[in-house]
Amino acid sequence: MDEIIKEMERYAEANNVPIIESDSIDFIKKYIKLNDVKKILEIGTAIGYSAIQMATASDDVEITTIERDEKNYREAVKNVNACGLDRRIEIVFNDALDVNLAGFKYDLIFIDAAKGQYIKFFEKFENYLTPSGIIITDNLKFHGLVENKDSIESKNVLGIVNKIEKYIEFLNENEEFTTKFYDIGDGISVSFRKNDANVKNID
Ligand SMILES: C[S@@+](CC[C@H](N)C(=O)[O-])C[C@H]1O[C@@H](n2cnc3c(N)ncnc32)[C@H](O)[C@@H]1O
After folding, report:
1. What CA–CA distance (Å, rounded) separates 189 from 166?
2. d(CA 40, CA 59)
3. What is the pLDDT of residues 77-105, one digit of tens each?
4. Is residue 68 lining ligand 1, measured as CB closer than 6 Å?
5. Helix%, strand%, coil% for the chain, nearest 5
6. How far apart are CA 187 and CA 21, in angstroms?
7. Which DSSP category does 200 fall into?
8. Which residue, of 7, 122, 152, 176, is most buried by count of CB atoms within 10 Å of its CB?
9. Which of 43, 70, 141 for mutating ligand 1's site (highest number of atoms within 8 Å of CB)?
10. How far is CA 96 from CA 2, 31, 79, 111, 198, in A?
11. Greater confidence, 151 or 55?
12. Domain boundaries, the chain
């Protein structure tokens, strides 16, 4: 398993596939262990790296992960099978905004797909959260550019950064969810319902 994970890191680097930073995945794995997480939904599989890592946090964890890019999807299927995790990780090949998960509820939803669609993902998938579930979002610093907007020359990149800022504003003003922001990896947020009385073991 360790060798497959290392090989995935090499593949991601060589093929410019963005995968989660080590501090961020350690944070999520710790949360999974301390809070008895069983069902996880991930938006943005890429090559299956974070899904496989999350599955290793506990044998009880089951993950559904959604990917719209066919090359990444195929690579993820290959990696999940190689790790013998195909019974605990289901990979859905589709655009997350088109997927119907009616009837399913998740203890943890991990948003790690197109940054410009974060608000849409949150508004859609909050409906699939258990009452004490949490939503974790990655890349809120977007490689440090959110705090350094003046240095951005590309219009596209500026557009993404503006959308991340809008998402942060959306989280801060959300009437149903409280969000904590962590300066870990590329910037992570943890959102949970305001009326959730369960104590979260996060820090
Ligand atoms: C940052 S990568 C995911 C990395 C992965 N979570 C990891 O850490 O190993 C983002 C992935 O989300 C996918 N993606 C972007 N928008 C999507 C959407 N609307 N539906 C499904 N997948 C999407 C991209 O194709 C890409 O593979």
Report:
1. 14
2. 13
3. 999 999 999 999 999 999 999 999 988 99
4. yes
5. 45, 20, 35
6. 10
7. P
8. 122
9. 43
10. 29, 24, 21, 10, 29
11. 55
12. 2-193
Amino acid at 52: I
Taking CA atoms, 125 is separated from 4, 59, 63, 183, 193, in Å, by: 30, 24, 15, 24, 13
Please give the backbone phi and psi of residue 49, each rounded to the nearest 5 degrees, phi first: -60, -55
Record the tokens describing residue 81, joined without a space.
């099978």
Given the structure tokens 């369960």, which residue do they identify? 198
- Ligand 1 mutation pick, 29, 40, 69, max ligand atoms within 8 A of CB: 69
Distance 25 CA to ligand 1 centre (A): 15
CB atoms within 10 A of CB 2: 7
Q: What is the pLDDT of residue 154?
A: 82
- Contacting residues for 87 by C-beta, under 8 A, at least 6 apart: none
- Residue 72 Cβ inside 6 Å of ligand 1? The answer reads yes
What token pair was written down for 132?
């004490």
CATH superfamily, with its number, for domain 2-193? Vaccinia Virus protein VP39 (3.40.50.150)
Amino acid at residue number 103? G
Place of tokens 């003003």: 173
pLDDT interval class at 173 (50, 70, 90): very high
pTM: 0.95
